[in-house]
Amino acid sequence: MDFSTLLLTNAGIVLGCMVLLWLLSLALKDASIVDIFWGFGFVVIAWSSILNAAAPSLLAWILVGMVTLWGCRLAGYLAWRNIGKGEDSRYREMREKPGRNFALFSLVVVYGLQGTIMWIVSLPLQIMPTLEGSFTALSVLGIALWMIGLAFESIGDWQLSRFKSDPSNQGKVLDQGLWRYTRHPNYFGDCVLWWGYYLLVVSVDASAWWTAIGPALMTFCLLWFSGVAHLEKRIPNRRPEYADYIRRTSAFFPWPPESKSSSTAVHNHFPTL
Is 148 helix (H, G, I), strand (E, B) or coil? Predict the structure, then answer.
């Protein structure tokens, strides 16, 4: 299967998955199930790509293994965190907008948009099985970057879930562990591991440089669309201490924090919120 046909095949698979998930969300009256599928959707795309490739390389199989480990961990974590808790407040607010046909709105804006983003972000995963090549120093760097990203994301999620499980922390702000150095270690880790995937791809074939659009879009979403900027519009209203946490802690990239007594903003304001 040539690459253009593979792209169309994967687009059809993503479309089918999103429509089925949308129908399930209508039955459950819970649009937030799309969040659980997010990581697993990339696993589906990665396996579809390699199973439809003529002769995938060892590095392609390694990449699929990396995606499978990351995607299943993320899907499992979100399922454990969200199932039984009702619809996420973001989707409830969308649903309650007066005069809106939420069923159609969610199909297009929630499921359609996420499916489109998923397909674009996954471009490095889709092209990898079509490339021929072997390990290089850049391959090792890509795998190392992925490992760092996975560690930040998984450890950050674990630290946050442990913090929230303690009733005495209700209303408080987590500023220990990885959260001491960045307000969003899980988002930072997600960004880093996607650039790790990309380095692995271009280590095989530099002509695949254009697939950088995938991790670039992921980075944009994490910083300014659905990640940091979106989340931090809401948190300070629920946790008054968060304003001080913002002043002394880097938004995204890990950086030593300012002291609690300092009124000076942290060195790293990226992104601007």
Answer: helix
State how far the Cα of 157 lies from the Cα of 146, in Å rounded to an integer.
16
Same domain, 83 and 137: no
172 torsion bin: left (phi>0), alpha (psi -120 to 50), beta (else): beta
CB 236, CB 243: distance < 8 Å? yes
Q: Which of 253, 273, 237, 233 is nearest to 183 (CA)?
A: 253
Instruction: Provide the domain limits for residue 79.
Output: 1-131
- The owner of tokens 């199932």 is 83
Q: Do residues 146 and 48 both lie within one domain?
A: no
- Are residues 163 and 86 part of one domain? no
- Separation of alpha carbons 273 and 260, rounded Å: 21
Express each pLDDT in 14-69 by its tens digit.
999 999 999 999 999 999 999 999 999 999 999 999 999 988 999 999 999 999 99
Side-chain-side CA neighbours of 119 within 13 Å: the count stands at: 19
Round to whole Å and give the CA distance between 140 and 269: 31
Q: Are 22 and 106 in contact (CB under 8 A)?
A: yes
Alpha-carbon distances, residue 229 vs 110, 173, 251, 252 (angstroms): 18, 17, 9, 11
The answer to whether 185 touches 207, Cβ cutoff 8 Å, is no
Rounded Cα distance between 214 and 192, Å, is 13
Decide which of 103 and 235 is more confident. 103
Q: 185-204 vs 213-220: helix axis angle to the nearest 10?
A: 170
Cα(224)–Cα(43) distance, rounded to whole angstroms?
Answer: 25
* Total domains, the chain: 2
